[in-house]
Specification:
Layout lengths: L38 H10 L14 E4 L2 E4 L35 H18 L20 H8 L8
Antiparallel strand pairs: 1-2
């Protein structure tokens, strides 16, 4: 039987798990500037090729290079301001079980009632109105001319009252 084994070829099915590229990839699109090597290797590479960019992974510099030396600028350091929330009564999130707040549209009539109505009622009760309806003791808003009121209404922060 040994003399027949080289002559008989048994065909077998084979399954290949490798891709059609046989492990070859196009690495030109992958920028591998700052991914490999020790710090010593990277320092030597930087000295031999200073134009090679250094990936900083999203971290901003806190200074500038002036005269070939790195000068740290204190104003460029990020300042994190965290408020003291020890006595805060608010919860860190709003639950989905909270009831929906339904509020009607804020109209010009509502604005008039919120700003001027109470003063007009008080002036009428205390007899501080002239016959034409103007106030004997006008407030600062009542003394404004239409042009001044228009300019004041368009200033930054005028919607905060």
């Amino acid at each position: 039987m040994n003399y027949l084994s080289p002559l008989i070829h048994v065909s077998r099915r084979q399954i290949s798990t490798s891709s059609a590229l046989n492990g070859k990839r196009n690495f030109r699109k992958f920028l591998l500037y700052n991914k490999r090597g020790t710090r010593i290797f990277k320092a030597e590479r930087h000295l031999s090729n200073p134009d090679m960019p250094i990936d900083k992974k999203g971290v901003r510099d806190t200074g500038r290079i002036i005269g070939g030396q790195f000068v740290e600028i204190p104003e460029m350091k990020p300042e994190i301001i965290v408020p003291d929330l020890t006595d805060c009564k608010f919860k860190p999130y709003v639950t989905y079980k909270a009831t929906d707040v339904i509020q009607s549209e804020f109209t010009s009539q509502d604005l008039f009632n919120a700003i001027y109505a109470q003063k007009i009622i008080d002036d009428f009760k205390n007899d501080k109105l002239y016959e034409d309806g103007t106030s004997k003791e006008p407030s600062v808003e009542e003394e404004l001319t239409p042009e001044e009121a228009w300019v004041k209404a368009r200033k930054t922060g005028s919607d905060m009252f």
